[in-house]
Amino acid sequence: MSQIEVFNPFTGERVFSQPSETFEAMCRRIDDAQKAARAWRKLDPTQRAEQIQAALDYFRLHRDAIAGA
């Protein structure tokens, strides 16, 4: 398995490194994203707004834990 590495172009310092996914895993992720997009499309604007507000509430409530991750 290969590594995905991101470097700061100014300093050359590596700022991120993570093992890459397999081709099959990426295909599954793409399929899952397409299914989620189809489900999202079926929601009316009010339902979408409620989902976004719930996500925002979650992030606000857990911001310290998220920032520390």
UniProtKB/TrEMBL annotation:
Record carries keyword Transferase: no
Keyword presence, rRNA processing: no
Keywords in alphabetical order: Oxidoreductase
Protein name per Swiss-Prot or TrEMBL: Aldehyde dehydrogenase family protein
InterPro entries referenced in this protein's UniProt entry, alphabetically: Ald_DH/histidinol_DH, Ald_DH_N, Aldehyde_DH_dom
Domain Aldehyde dehydrogenase: 3-67
One Pfam family of this chain: Aldedh
